[in-house]
Amino acid sequence: MKKIEIHTFSELLSLGKTPEILFWVGCAGSFDERAKKITKAFANILNQANVSFAVLGSEEGCTGDPAKRAGNEFLFQMQALSNIEILNGYNIKKIVTTCPHCFNTLKNEYPELGGEYEVMHHTQFLKSLLNEGRLKVSRGAFKGKRITFHDPCYLGRANNIYEAPRDVLEKLDVELSEMKSCKQKGLCCGAGGAQMFKDAEPGNQEINIKRTEEALDTKPDIIAAGCPFCNTMLTDGIKNKKREKSVQVLDIAELINQASEL
Amino acid sequence: MISILPNILFSLIFIFAIFYFLRNVKKIYRNINLGIKEDRSDNKKQRWVQMLRIAFGQSKMIDKPIVGILHIVVYIGFLVINIELLEIVVDGFLGTHRVFAPFLGSFYNFLIAFFEFFALLVIISIIFFWSRRNILKIKRFWNTEMKGWPKSDADNILYIEVLLMLLFLTMNGADLWLQNNAYQLNYVTAGSFPVSQFLIPLFENLSVNTVFIIERTAWWLHIIGILFFLNYLYYSKHLHILLAFPNTYFANLNFKGKFSNLKSVTNEVKMMMDPSIDPFSAPVIEEVSKFGASDVFDLSWIQLLNAYTCTECGRCTSECPASQTGKKLSPRKIMMDTRDRLEEVGKNIDKNNGEFKPDGKQLLENHISNEELWACTSCNACVEACPIGIDPLSIIIDMRRYLVMEKSAAPSELNNMMTNIENNGAPWPFNQMDKLNWKNEL
């Protein structure tokens, strides 16, 4: 197994190398204990598949997504403009990110402000690595496991990407079962629109519990996620239902990392 | 002379009804234009396709297959029976009877049969719709915002439609009886009546004169009913039968995740971030009175058109995660509140000679509460669910913008999150310099 190497854009440029791809790690991926595991899994995959990539490290600021959804357009645009200055400074063309919120913001909201890049969600990128044969998975690793995929709102409805994550899961020879509400009708995990950072308004149930119940109805061994925030919400839901011993919540990058023939 | 009295009466009623309707259309147009300008003149071809697919083709109604198909039946019924309406209006003006029959020959028989067939299907569909509302009591029709007028409005529409169809069939049935029995009247024989023929036994023991009166009464009530219904639209959620077309034409074509970037903010932020710009020599940017929306004047005309188009079906609310888990937010209520406030503003303008006189009220607080706005997860389920391209989420976000940027009224946890982003580039209190620390854990 190859040693994992992580370089920043500035390091590589000083060596005269220009990486093809920027891995946008995101704040959750950098600081949240659970999400960091996803970051490491994806970084490992990129290394093993010999992808020429780099990160921004301390030069990466929040995309501004939670500020924008909370209504703070000032803060969003300040974040956006300073990020764009850095991205354009490195002449970055292609970005891959493990967070659908960063993905959506970079892809849809930065162009008008002067930041035009080809932006991919990591499930799309994994799909292309698998299709090109740059990445191979052993079909045995999760054979026969029941998996259900939770559509992140900012990947699915927000950007119409429903198939890439499912295509990746199918390569694993698992038994994929869909929840009652999925794809266009997928129920939110409850974290979007800056809800991640506040308590919910009064109601009769937490959204993540409702979504966890829908997931558990499919009798899964694994709930697959494609977003660090959905991951947190569903993991909390599983703990609330005291099912953490029998059901795992894993990101697609983690599943592929575990199954890859590296 | 007496023989043209009905024609004169008809002409007066018809002209009055159309005049009154157009007067109200003008008000709707004026009210929608109270909104902020937003250019949607782009991508004409794509917009036509979207309108044809979603409004004309009803593609999103099929998401719920049974009601979707029944809705299409009522919709086609509405379209085809309008062709019959044309004849009724010409007959009304000229005092003729079944004026198209001689021109269309046997095709006329086919048309009348076709209309009758659809009239029956419409009645069946409406009985089904009524039962869903009032017997099955489908949850989304009974939310709190549906109490009072919205509930009776929904039922009224169904009653009026059934009544119109019954009058149409009675008129035809009586007409068929007269065609067979009223030899002395030199009665026009035309049409084919596969449904209303079953009404014939009702007229069996009646005199020609009585049946003639029944036929005329049904004819008059039918056309007056239609003209009444046309004017009822202005006061009703049923406006969607007209506005669904422009609404889907002008609906958002971008990815749903793309929220608007406020241009006024961009200018200020650029000025703030670039020390080389001299704020005094910079071109004067049009004074922005306000960031975000607290009243209908701050919304775009698209959002106001959305409000008039909403038919209160509640598909948005039944898909909303906040609503499903008992929070106060209901995307349908956001649209209904916007229309209520807009109509209130419209009446104010009517009363004050075309000028809006501040009434101390606004959309925020008087209609929509902060609690509703902060319950939204921005998941786009409501936007996806709407069968006619309404976007409640954009209104929620615009109102949050007002709360945050004008009133600094975000929940305190969100203020913490935003302070963190401002100070250390992440929503949590971690140092940006530590952003790559995960690398050391590999």
Structure characterization notes:
With 262 residues, chain A is an alpha/beta fold. Chain A has 2 domains: 120 residues, Rossmann fold (3-Layer(aba) Sandwich), CATH 3.40.50; 122 residues, Rossmann fold (3-Layer(aba) Sandwich), CATH 3.40.50. Helices cover 42% and strands 11% of the residues of chain A. In chain A, the strands form 2 sheets. Chain A has a 4-stranded parallel sheet. A 4-stranded parallel sheet of chain A has the order 6-5-7-8, with helices on both faces. In chain A, strand 7, helix 10 and strand 8 form a beta-alpha-beta unit. The longest helix of chain A is centred in the N-terminal third of the chain and has 17 residues. Chain A starts with 8 loop residues before the first helix and ends with a helix. With 442 residues, chain B is mainly alpha-helical. Chain B folds into 2 domains: 218 residues; 168 residues, Alpha-helical ferredoxin (Fumarate Reductase Iron-sulfur Protein, Chain B, domain 2), CATH 1.10.1060.10. In chain B, 60% of the residues lie in helices and 0% in strands. The model of chain B has no long low-confidence stretch (mean pLDDT 93). Classes of the chains: A alpha/beta (262), B mainly alpha (442). Chains A and B meet through helix 2, helix 3, helix 4, helix 5 and helix 6 of A and helix 9, helix 12, helix 16, helix 17 and helix 18 of B.
